[in-house]
Specification:
heterodimer, A: 288 residues, mainly alpha, ABC transporter involved in vitamin B12 uptake, BtuC, 3% strand, globular, B: alpha/beta, Rossmann fold, six-stranded mixed beta sheet, four-stranded antiparallel beta sheet, 11 helices, 10 strands, 26% strand
Chain lengths: 288, 234
Protein backbone atom coordinates (compact mmCIF):
# COMPACT_ATOMS: atom_id res chain seq x y z
CA UNK A 1 0.00 0.00 0.00
CA UNK A 2 2.76 2.39 0.98
CA UNK A 3 4.46 1.59 -2.29
CA UNK A 4 1.34 2.45 -4.20
CA UNK A 5 1.07 5.78 -2.47
CA UNK A 6 4.75 6.54 -3.02
CA UNK A 7 4.33 5.72 -6.68
CA UNK A 8 1.32 7.99 -6.91
CA UNK A 9 3.22 10.71 -5.07
CA UNK A 10 6.21 10.48 -7.35
CA UNK A 11 4.21 10.51 -10.53
CA UNK A 12 1.90 13.17 -9.16
CA UNK A 13 4.80 15.52 -8.52
CA UNK A 14 6.04 14.91 -12.01
CA UNK A 15 2.60 15.47 -13.53
CA UNK A 16 2.31 18.64 -11.47
CA UNK A 17 5.30 20.09 -13.25
CA UNK A 18 3.43 20.17 -16.54
CA UNK A 19 0.24 21.42 -14.91
CA UNK A 20 2.14 24.27 -13.29
CA UNK A 21 2.90 25.65 -16.74
CA UNK A 22 -0.80 25.71 -17.57
CA UNK A 23 -1.50 27.56 -14.34
CA UNK A 24 1.24 30.11 -14.96
CA UNK A 25 -0.08 30.75 -18.47
CA UNK A 26 -3.63 31.32 -17.29
CA UNK A 27 -2.54 33.42 -14.32
CA UNK A 28 -0.31 35.66 -16.43
CA UNK A 29 -3.08 36.23 -18.94
CA UNK A 30 -5.59 36.95 -16.21
CA UNK A 31 -3.24 39.16 -14.23
CA UNK A 32 -2.10 41.26 -17.16
CA UNK A 33 -5.07 41.36 -19.52
CA UNK A 34 -7.83 40.71 -17.01
CA UNK A 35 -9.15 38.05 -19.37
CA UNK A 36 -10.11 34.50 -18.47
CA UNK A 37 -8.79 32.39 -21.33
CA UNK A 38 -11.64 29.91 -21.63
CA UNK A 39 -10.12 28.36 -24.73
CA UNK A 40 -6.70 27.66 -23.18
CA UNK A 41 -7.16 23.90 -23.08
CA UNK A 42 -8.19 23.92 -26.72
CA UNK A 43 -4.96 25.73 -27.57
CA UNK A 44 -3.07 22.89 -25.89
CA UNK A 45 -5.16 20.45 -27.90
CA UNK A 46 -4.29 22.18 -31.18
CA UNK A 47 -0.61 22.12 -30.22
CA UNK A 48 -0.87 18.38 -29.50
CA UNK A 49 -2.32 17.86 -32.96
CA UNK A 50 0.57 19.93 -34.31
CA UNK A 51 3.06 17.56 -32.66
CA UNK A 52 1.16 14.64 -34.22
CA UNK A 53 1.21 16.25 -37.69
CA UNK A 54 4.91 17.04 -37.58
CA UNK A 55 6.14 13.85 -35.89
CA UNK A 56 3.80 11.16 -37.25
CA UNK A 57 2.52 12.49 -40.57
CA UNK A 58 5.61 14.41 -41.67
CA UNK A 59 8.16 12.17 -39.94
CA UNK A 60 10.04 15.10 -38.50
CA UNK A 61 12.22 14.08 -35.51
CA UNK A 62 10.23 14.30 -32.32
CA UNK A 63 12.27 17.05 -30.66
CA UNK A 64 12.03 19.35 -33.69
CA UNK A 65 8.33 18.54 -33.97
CA UNK A 66 7.85 19.74 -30.42
CA UNK A 67 9.67 23.00 -31.12
CA UNK A 68 7.55 23.53 -34.23
CA UNK A 69 4.41 22.83 -32.22
CA UNK A 70 5.43 25.53 -29.71
CA UNK A 71 5.82 27.94 -32.63
CA UNK A 72 2.38 26.96 -33.97
CA UNK A 73 0.90 27.52 -30.53
CA UNK A 74 2.48 30.96 -30.27
CA UNK A 75 1.11 31.85 -33.69
CA UNK A 76 -2.35 30.67 -32.69
CA UNK A 77 -2.17 32.86 -29.58
CA UNK A 78 -1.21 35.83 -31.74
CA UNK A 79 -4.22 35.21 -33.99
CA UNK A 80 -6.63 34.86 -31.09
CA UNK A 81 -5.27 37.97 -29.42
CA UNK A 82 -5.52 40.16 -32.49
CA UNK A 83 -8.91 38.93 -33.66
CA UNK A 84 -10.82 38.27 -30.44
CA UNK A 85 -9.09 39.37 -27.24
CA UNK A 86 -7.69 42.78 -28.12
CA UNK A 87 -10.94 44.20 -29.56
CA UNK A 88 -12.80 43.08 -26.44
CA UNK A 89 -10.37 44.25 -23.78
CA UNK A 90 -12.70 47.00 -22.62
CA UNK A 91 -15.90 45.06 -23.23
CA UNK A 92 -18.02 43.59 -20.42
CA UNK A 93 -16.82 40.29 -18.96
CA UNK A 94 -19.73 38.35 -20.42
CA UNK A 95 -18.80 39.43 -23.95
CA UNK A 96 -15.22 38.26 -23.44
CA UNK A 97 -16.36 34.90 -22.09
CA UNK A 98 -18.85 34.36 -24.89
CA UNK A 99 -16.32 35.26 -27.55
CA UNK A 100 -13.77 32.85 -26.11
CA UNK A 101 -16.44 30.17 -25.88
CA UNK A 102 -16.90 30.79 -29.58
CA UNK A 103 -13.17 30.28 -30.09
CA UNK A 104 -13.49 26.92 -28.31
CA UNK A 105 -16.12 25.80 -30.79
CA UNK A 106 -14.18 27.08 -33.78
CA UNK A 107 -10.97 25.34 -32.77
CA UNK A 108 -12.63 22.03 -31.92
CA UNK A 109 -14.57 21.93 -35.15
CA UNK A 110 -11.59 22.97 -37.27
CA UNK A 111 -9.68 20.02 -35.85
CA UNK A 112 -12.67 17.74 -36.19
CA UNK A 113 -13.10 18.72 -39.82
CA UNK A 114 -9.42 18.25 -40.58
CA UNK A 115 -8.62 15.09 -38.68
CA UNK A 116 -11.90 13.40 -37.89
CA UNK A 117 -12.90 12.27 -34.44
CA UNK A 118 -10.50 9.36 -34.01
CA UNK A 119 -7.94 9.47 -31.28
CA UNK A 120 -4.45 10.22 -32.52
CA UNK A 121 -1.29 9.64 -30.62
CA UNK A 122 2.43 9.56 -30.86
CA UNK A 123 2.95 5.83 -30.43
CA UNK A 124 6.27 6.31 -28.71
CA UNK A 125 7.06 4.21 -25.73
CA UNK A 126 9.32 5.55 -23.13
CA UNK A 127 11.02 3.28 -20.65
CA UNK A 128 10.02 2.92 -17.04
CA UNK A 129 12.70 2.56 -14.40
CA UNK A 130 12.62 2.01 -10.72
CA UNK A 131 14.22 3.73 -7.79
CA UNK A 132 13.93 1.43 -4.81
CA UNK A 133 10.37 0.14 -5.17
CA UNK A 134 9.01 3.16 -6.96
CA UNK A 135 8.34 2.89 -10.65
CA UNK A 136 9.03 6.12 -12.44
CA UNK A 137 7.84 6.60 -15.96
CA UNK A 138 10.29 8.52 -18.11
CA UNK A 139 7.26 9.95 -19.88
CA UNK A 140 6.40 11.62 -16.58
CA UNK A 141 9.94 12.81 -15.94
CA UNK A 142 9.88 14.88 -19.11
CA UNK A 143 6.97 17.18 -18.13
CA UNK A 144 8.48 17.57 -14.70
CA UNK A 145 11.93 18.70 -15.76
CA UNK A 146 10.73 20.74 -18.68
CA UNK A 147 8.13 22.28 -16.37
CA UNK A 148 10.66 23.18 -13.68
CA UNK A 149 13.12 24.62 -16.17
CA UNK A 150 10.40 26.67 -17.85
CA UNK A 151 9.15 27.92 -14.49
CA UNK A 152 12.66 29.02 -13.59
CA UNK A 153 13.02 30.78 -16.95
CA UNK A 154 9.70 32.56 -16.49
CA UNK A 155 10.72 33.60 -12.97
CA UNK A 156 14.02 34.95 -14.24
CA UNK A 157 12.25 36.79 -17.04
CA UNK A 158 9.81 38.44 -14.64
CA UNK A 159 12.38 39.42 -12.04
CA UNK A 160 15.52 40.14 -14.05
CA UNK A 161 14.36 41.87 -17.22
CA UNK A 162 12.89 45.33 -17.78
CA UNK A 163 10.00 43.86 -19.78
CA UNK A 164 9.29 41.37 -16.99
CA UNK A 165 9.22 44.25 -14.51
CA UNK A 166 6.86 46.12 -16.82
CA UNK A 167 4.53 43.10 -16.87
CA UNK A 168 4.43 43.08 -13.08
CA UNK A 169 3.77 46.82 -13.07
CA UNK A 170 0.89 46.44 -15.54
CA UNK A 171 -0.69 43.77 -13.32
CA UNK A 172 -0.53 46.10 -10.32
CA UNK A 173 -1.66 49.35 -11.93
CA UNK A 174 -2.20 49.48 -15.67
CA UNK A 175 -2.90 53.20 -15.88
CA UNK A 176 0.21 54.08 -13.89
CA UNK A 177 2.26 51.75 -16.10
CA UNK A 178 0.96 53.78 -19.07
CA UNK A 179 2.06 56.94 -17.30
CA UNK A 180 5.67 55.80 -16.81
CA UNK A 181 5.95 55.02 -20.49
CA UNK A 182 5.04 51.34 -20.81
CA UNK A 183 3.45 50.51 -24.15
CA UNK A 184 0.72 48.48 -22.56
CA UNK A 185 -0.74 47.26 -25.86
CA UNK A 186 2.54 45.54 -26.60
CA UNK A 187 2.68 44.06 -23.12
CA UNK A 188 -0.79 42.61 -23.62
CA UNK A 189 0.25 41.00 -26.89
CA UNK A 190 3.51 39.69 -25.46
CA UNK A 191 1.79 38.18 -22.43
CA UNK A 192 -0.86 36.46 -24.52
CA UNK A 193 1.77 35.01 -26.83
CA UNK A 194 3.80 33.83 -23.82
CA UNK A 195 0.63 32.05 -22.75
CA UNK A 196 0.58 30.42 -26.18
CA UNK A 197 4.23 29.36 -25.87
CA UNK A 198 3.47 27.80 -22.48
CA UNK A 199 0.50 25.93 -23.94
CA UNK A 200 2.79 24.63 -26.68
CA UNK A 201 5.37 23.45 -24.13
CA UNK A 202 2.64 21.68 -22.14
CA UNK A 203 1.55 19.96 -25.35
CA UNK A 204 5.12 18.93 -26.14
CA UNK A 205 5.48 17.48 -22.64
CA UNK A 206 2.27 15.55 -22.65
CA UNK A 207 2.41 14.35 -26.26
CA UNK A 208 4.01 11.01 -25.35
CA UNK A 209 1.46 10.37 -22.61
CA UNK A 210 -1.87 11.25 -24.11
CA UNK A 211 -3.78 10.27 -27.17
CA UNK A 212 -5.71 13.32 -28.25
CA UNK A 213 -9.07 13.97 -29.87
CA UNK A 214 -10.91 17.20 -30.76
CA UNK A 215 -12.74 17.46 -27.43
CA UNK A 216 -9.62 16.84 -25.40
CA UNK A 217 -9.16 20.49 -24.54
CA UNK A 218 -12.08 20.81 -22.18
CA UNK A 219 -10.41 18.60 -19.57
CA UNK A 220 -7.27 20.73 -19.64
CA UNK A 221 -9.15 24.02 -19.35
CA UNK A 222 -11.10 22.68 -16.41
CA UNK A 223 -7.97 21.39 -14.70
CA UNK A 224 -6.22 24.69 -15.34
CA UNK A 225 -9.19 26.52 -13.84
CA UNK A 226 -9.23 24.39 -10.72
CA UNK A 227 -5.52 24.93 -10.19
CA UNK A 228 -5.69 28.65 -10.80
CA UNK A 229 -8.58 29.19 -8.40
CA UNK A 230 -7.01 26.90 -5.82
CA UNK A 231 -3.75 28.81 -5.93
CA UNK A 232 -5.36 32.22 -5.95
CA UNK A 233 -6.39 33.97 -9.16
CA UNK A 234 -3.48 35.82 -10.68
CA UNK A 235 -1.04 34.41 -8.14
CA UNK A 236 1.82 32.75 -10.03
CA UNK A 237 3.41 31.14 -6.99
CA UNK A 238 0.05 29.96 -5.70
CA UNK A 239 -0.84 28.44 -9.04
CA UNK A 240 2.42 26.53 -9.21
CA UNK A 241 1.97 25.16 -5.70
CA UNK A 242 -1.63 24.22 -6.40
CA UNK A 243 -0.56 22.46 -9.61
CA UNK A 244 1.69 20.10 -7.68
CA UNK A 245 -0.97 19.53 -5.04
CA UNK A 246 -3.60 18.68 -7.64
CA UNK A 247 -1.09 16.50 -9.48
CA UNK A 248 -0.37 14.57 -6.30
CA UNK A 249 -4.00 14.27 -5.20
CA UNK A 250 -5.19 13.01 -8.58
CA UNK A 251 -2.36 10.53 -9.00
CA UNK A 252 -2.41 9.17 -5.44
CA UNK A 253 -6.21 8.85 -5.39
CA UNK A 254 -5.94 7.38 -8.84
CA UNK A 255 -3.67 4.53 -7.73
CA UNK A 256 -5.45 3.85 -4.44
CA UNK A 257 -8.96 3.92 -5.85
CA UNK A 258 -9.42 4.75 -9.52
CA UNK A 259 -8.85 7.68 -11.82
CA UNK A 260 -12.55 8.53 -11.65
CA UNK A 261 -12.35 8.82 -7.87
CA UNK A 262 -9.25 10.93 -8.37
CA UNK A 263 -11.22 13.34 -10.56
CA UNK A 264 -14.11 13.46 -8.10
CA UNK A 265 -11.70 14.26 -5.30
CA UNK A 266 -10.06 17.09 -7.24
CA UNK A 267 -13.36 18.74 -8.11
CA UNK A 268 -14.73 18.27 -4.61
CA UNK A 269 -11.70 20.10 -3.24
CA UNK A 270 -12.36 22.80 -5.85
CA UNK A 271 -15.98 23.23 -4.77
CA UNK A 272 -14.98 23.35 -1.12
CA UNK A 273 -12.45 26.09 -1.80
CA UNK A 274 -14.94 28.15 -3.78
CA UNK A 275 -17.40 27.83 -0.90
CA UNK A 276 -15.08 28.44 2.02
CA UNK A 277 -11.88 30.01 0.77
CA UNK A 278 -12.46 31.54 -2.66
CA UNK A 279 -9.22 33.53 -2.51
CA UNK A 280 -7.38 30.23 -2.81
CA UNK A 281 -4.36 28.99 -0.90
CA UNK A 282 -2.11 31.98 -1.27
CA UNK A 283 -4.59 34.74 -2.02
CA UNK A 284 -5.77 36.52 -5.09
CA UNK A 285 -3.31 38.81 -6.84
CA UNK A 286 -5.13 40.87 -9.37
CA UNK A 287 -5.37 44.50 -10.36
CA UNK A 288 -7.14 46.70 -7.84
CA UNK B 1 6.74 75.57 -22.54
CA UNK B 2 3.29 74.08 -22.07
CA UNK B 3 0.32 75.70 -23.71
CA UNK B 4 -3.24 74.53 -23.28
CA UNK B 5 -5.65 76.30 -25.62
CA UNK B 6 -9.40 76.13 -25.39
CA UNK B 7 -9.47 72.56 -24.15
CA UNK B 8 -12.76 70.90 -23.35
CA UNK B 9 -12.75 67.39 -21.97
CA UNK B 10 -14.78 64.97 -19.97
CA UNK B 11 -15.63 61.34 -19.35
CA UNK B 12 -18.12 60.04 -21.89
CA UNK B 13 -21.18 62.23 -21.80
CA UNK B 14 -20.01 64.26 -18.81
CA UNK B 15 -18.19 67.35 -19.96
CA UNK B 16 -15.96 68.47 -17.13
CA UNK B 17 -13.74 71.10 -18.69
CA UNK B 18 -15.00 74.05 -20.72
CA UNK B 19 -12.67 75.90 -23.00
CA UNK B 20 -9.69 76.05 -20.65
CA UNK B 21 -6.51 77.86 -21.62
CA UNK B 22 -3.48 77.81 -19.37
CA UNK B 23 0.25 78.26 -19.83
CA UNK B 24 3.36 77.06 -18.02
CA UNK B 25 6.56 78.99 -18.76
CA UNK B 26 9.84 77.11 -18.62
CA UNK B 27 11.36 76.93 -15.15
CA UNK B 28 8.27 78.22 -13.36
CA UNK B 29 5.86 76.69 -10.89
CA UNK B 30 2.20 77.05 -11.80
CA UNK B 31 -0.60 75.98 -9.54
CA UNK B 32 -4.25 75.32 -10.20
CA UNK B 33 -6.68 75.62 -7.36
CA UNK B 34 -10.39 75.16 -7.04
CA UNK B 35 -12.89 73.13 -5.10
CA UNK B 36 -13.67 69.46 -5.67
CA UNK B 37 -15.10 68.60 -9.04
CA UNK B 38 -13.80 71.79 -10.61
CA UNK B 39 -11.93 69.78 -13.23
CA UNK B 40 -8.35 70.28 -12.08
CA UNK B 41 -7.44 66.58 -12.12
CA UNK B 42 -9.20 66.13 -15.44
CA UNK B 43 -7.03 68.83 -16.98
CA UNK B 44 -3.84 67.14 -15.80
CA UNK B 45 -5.09 63.77 -17.07
CA UNK B 46 -5.90 65.36 -20.43
CA UNK B 47 -2.40 66.77 -20.74
CA UNK B 48 -0.96 63.39 -19.69
CA UNK B 49 -2.89 61.65 -22.44
CA UNK B 50 -5.12 59.56 -20.18
CA UNK B 51 -8.22 61.56 -21.19
CA UNK B 52 -8.72 62.58 -24.81
CA UNK B 53 -9.84 66.21 -25.23
CA UNK B 54 -13.15 66.82 -26.93
CA UNK B 55 -11.91 70.13 -28.26
CA UNK B 56 -8.95 72.49 -28.16
CA UNK B 57 -5.21 72.02 -28.53
CA UNK B 58 -2.28 71.31 -26.27
CA UNK B 59 1.26 72.32 -27.20
CA UNK B 60 4.48 71.28 -25.51
CA UNK B 61 7.67 73.00 -26.59
CA UNK B 62 5.91 74.13 -29.73
CA UNK B 63 4.70 70.69 -30.82
CA UNK B 64 1.10 69.57 -30.60
CA UNK B 65 0.54 66.79 -28.08
CA UNK B 66 -3.21 66.45 -27.59
CA UNK B 67 -4.48 63.03 -28.57
CA UNK B 68 -1.13 61.33 -28.02
CA UNK B 69 -0.90 58.20 -25.89
CA UNK B 70 0.39 58.50 -22.30
CA UNK B 71 3.65 56.71 -23.05
CA UNK B 72 4.37 59.17 -25.85
CA UNK B 73 3.75 62.12 -23.52
CA UNK B 74 6.22 60.73 -20.99
CA UNK B 75 8.77 60.18 -23.76
CA UNK B 76 8.40 63.85 -24.71
CA UNK B 77 9.27 64.97 -21.19
CA UNK B 78 6.09 65.39 -19.16
CA UNK B 79 5.91 63.33 -15.96
CA UNK B 80 2.66 62.91 -14.08
CA UNK B 81 2.36 62.20 -10.36
CA UNK B 82 -1.31 61.24 -9.95
CA UNK B 83 -3.34 61.75 -6.81
CA UNK B 84 -2.29 59.36 -4.05
CA UNK B 85 1.06 58.77 -5.66
CA UNK B 86 0.09 55.38 -7.04
CA UNK B 87 3.36 53.62 -6.54
CA UNK B 88 3.43 49.99 -7.66
CA UNK B 89 2.64 48.37 -4.32
CA UNK B 90 4.23 44.95 -4.81
CA UNK B 91 7.44 46.29 -6.30
CA UNK B 92 10.35 47.47 -4.17
CA UNK B 93 11.42 51.12 -3.90
CA UNK B 94 14.29 50.36 -6.29
CA UNK B 95 11.96 48.64 -8.79
CA UNK B 96 9.51 51.54 -8.70
CA UNK B 97 12.34 53.92 -9.51
CA UNK B 98 13.52 51.58 -12.24
CA UNK B 99 10.04 51.67 -13.78
CA UNK B 100 10.26 55.44 -13.66
CA UNK B 101 13.13 55.23 -16.13
CA UNK B 102 11.26 52.93 -18.50
CA UNK B 103 11.34 55.21 -21.56
CA UNK B 104 14.32 54.70 -23.85
CA UNK B 105 15.46 58.27 -23.28
CA UNK B 106 15.59 57.81 -19.51
CA UNK B 107 16.86 54.23 -19.53
CA UNK B 108 20.22 55.21 -20.96
CA UNK B 109 20.93 57.41 -17.97
CA UNK B 110 19.27 55.23 -15.33
CA UNK B 111 22.26 54.80 -13.02
CA UNK B 112 23.24 58.49 -13.05
CA UNK B 113 19.65 59.63 -12.53
CA UNK B 114 19.28 57.12 -9.71
CA UNK B 115 22.30 58.56 -7.91
CA UNK B 116 20.95 62.09 -8.31
CA UNK B 117 17.56 61.04 -6.97
CA UNK B 118 19.16 59.24 -4.02
CA UNK B 119 21.08 62.41 -3.20
CA UNK B 120 17.85 64.38 -3.14
CA UNK B 121 16.00 61.69 -1.19
CA UNK B 122 18.47 59.75 0.98
CA UNK B 123 15.63 57.99 2.75
CA UNK B 124 14.74 56.20 -0.48
CA UNK B 125 18.26 54.89 -0.83
CA UNK B 126 18.11 53.49 2.69
CA UNK B 127 14.83 51.74 1.93
CA UNK B 128 15.55 50.74 -1.63
CA UNK B 129 14.82 47.04 -1.09
CA UNK B 130 11.63 47.62 0.86
CA UNK B 131 8.33 46.62 -0.74
CA UNK B 132 6.73 49.96 -1.45
CA UNK B 133 3.26 48.92 -0.33
CA UNK B 134 4.62 48.97 3.23
CA UNK B 135 5.81 52.58 3.09
CA UNK B 136 3.93 55.29 4.96
CA UNK B 137 1.77 57.82 3.10
CA UNK B 138 4.40 60.52 3.08
CA UNK B 139 7.14 58.12 2.01
CA UNK B 140 4.96 56.88 -0.85
CA UNK B 141 4.42 60.41 -2.06
CA UNK B 142 8.16 60.97 -1.90
CA UNK B 143 8.73 57.79 -3.91
CA UNK B 144 6.13 58.82 -6.46
CA UNK B 145 7.76 62.19 -7.00
CA UNK B 146 11.20 60.56 -7.19
CA UNK B 147 9.85 58.07 -9.72
CA UNK B 148 8.62 60.96 -11.84
CA UNK B 149 12.12 62.45 -11.75
CA UNK B 150 13.55 59.16 -13.01
CA UNK B 151 11.92 59.78 -16.40
CA UNK B 152 14.15 62.84 -16.86
CA UNK B 153 11.18 65.14 -17.37
CA UNK B 154 11.12 68.76 -18.38
CA UNK B 155 7.72 69.35 -16.82
CA UNK B 156 6.38 67.64 -13.71
CA UNK B 157 2.64 67.57 -13.08
CA UNK B 158 1.45 66.89 -9.53
CA UNK B 159 -2.16 66.09 -8.70
CA UNK B 160 -2.98 67.08 -5.12
CA UNK B 161 0.32 65.91 -3.60
CA UNK B 162 -0.88 66.68 -0.08
CA UNK B 163 -4.11 64.73 -0.36
CA UNK B 164 -4.78 62.30 2.48
CA UNK B 165 -1.63 63.16 4.40
CA UNK B 166 -1.21 64.43 7.96
CA UNK B 167 -0.30 68.13 8.30
CA UNK B 168 3.27 67.44 9.40
CA UNK B 169 3.80 65.15 6.41
CA UNK B 170 2.24 67.73 4.13
CA UNK B 171 4.97 70.14 5.19
CA UNK B 172 7.59 67.54 4.27
CA UNK B 173 5.98 66.95 0.88
CA UNK B 174 5.99 70.63 0.09
CA UNK B 175 9.63 70.73 1.13
CA UNK B 176 10.42 68.04 -1.47
CA UNK B 177 8.55 70.04 -4.08
CA UNK B 178 10.51 73.13 -3.05
CA UNK B 179 13.71 71.09 -3.58
CA UNK B 180 12.56 70.03 -7.04
CA UNK B 181 11.65 73.60 -7.88
CA UNK B 182 15.12 74.73 -6.83
CA UNK B 183 16.61 72.19 -9.25
CA UNK B 184 15.02 74.11 -12.08
CA UNK B 185 12.16 71.83 -13.07
CA UNK B 186 8.95 73.30 -14.46
CA UNK B 187 6.05 72.32 -12.25
CA UNK B 188 2.30 72.27 -12.82
CA UNK B 189 0.53 71.47 -9.60
CA UNK B 190 -3.06 71.01 -8.63
CA UNK B 191 -3.84 71.54 -4.97
CA UNK B 192 -6.67 72.01 -2.56
CA UNK B 193 -4.32 73.20 0.16
CA UNK B 194 -4.22 76.65 -1.37
CA UNK B 195 -2.22 78.50 1.26
CA UNK B 196 0.78 76.17 1.12
CA UNK B 197 0.62 75.74 -2.65
CA UNK B 198 0.42 79.42 -3.49
CA UNK B 199 3.57 79.95 -1.46
CA UNK B 200 5.53 77.84 -3.97
CA UNK B 201 3.90 79.25 -7.06
CA UNK B 202 4.97 81.80 -9.60
CA UNK B 203 1.58 81.88 -11.25
CA UNK B 204 -1.85 80.60 -10.28
CA UNK B 205 -5.15 79.64 -11.91
CA UNK B 206 -8.51 79.23 -10.25
CA UNK B 207 -10.93 76.71 -11.70
CA UNK B 208 -14.59 76.46 -10.82
CA UNK B 209 -16.95 73.85 -12.30
CA UNK B 210 -14.89 73.41 -15.41
CA UNK B 211 -14.29 77.08 -16.13
CA UNK B 212 -11.29 79.30 -15.60
CA UNK B 213 -12.47 82.08 -13.35
CA UNK B 214 -9.26 83.80 -12.32
CA UNK B 215 -5.56 83.81 -13.03
CA UNK B 216 -2.62 85.86 -11.97
CA UNK B 217 0.83 86.09 -10.50
CA UNK B 218 1.17 84.90 -6.93
CA UNK B 219 0.97 88.37 -5.35
CA UNK B 220 -2.16 89.38 -7.30
CA UNK B 221 -3.73 86.04 -6.49
CA UNK B 222 -3.25 86.52 -2.79
CA UNK B 223 -4.67 90.02 -2.96
CA UNK B 224 -7.91 89.09 -4.72
CA UNK B 225 -10.73 89.51 -2.18
CA UNK B 226 -12.94 86.73 -3.54
CA UNK B 227 -10.13 84.23 -3.39
CA UNK B 228 -9.16 85.38 0.05
CA UNK B 229 -12.62 84.65 1.33
CA UNK B 230 -13.55 81.48 -0.57
CA UNK B 231 -10.27 79.65 -0.70
CA UNK B 232 -7.89 81.07 1.81
CA UNK B 233 -10.43 81.40 4.56
CA UNK B 234 -9.21 84.87 5.38
Amino acid sequence: MVNLILNGLANGILYGGGLALLAVGMNLIFGVLNVIHLAYGQCVMVALYAVYVFAVLLHIPIFISCLLAVAVSALLALLIHVSVVKPLLKAPLINQLLALAGVIIVLENLILATFGSDYVGLQISFPVFSIADIFVKVSSLIPFFVGIITLILIWMFLTRTYTGLAIKAVVQDREMADLVGVKTDRIYLLTFVIGGVLAGIVAACFAPIYTVHPHFGAGFTLTAFVIVVLGGLGNLVGGSVAAFLIGIVSQVAGVIFSSEIGEILVYTIFILFILFRPQGLLGVKVRT
Amino acid sequence: MLQVEGVSAGYGKFNILNNISIKVESGTTVIMVGSNGAGKSTLLKTIAGVVKPAGGEIYFEGARIDGKAPHQIVELGIAFVPEGGRIFPDLSVYENLKMGSYTSRARREFQTTLQEVFELFPLLEKRKKQVSGSLSGGERQMLSIARALMSKPKLIMLDEPSSGLAPKIVTHVFEFIETIKAQGYSILMVEQNVLKAVDLADYAYLLSTGNLVYQGKKEEFLQNPEIKVSYLGI
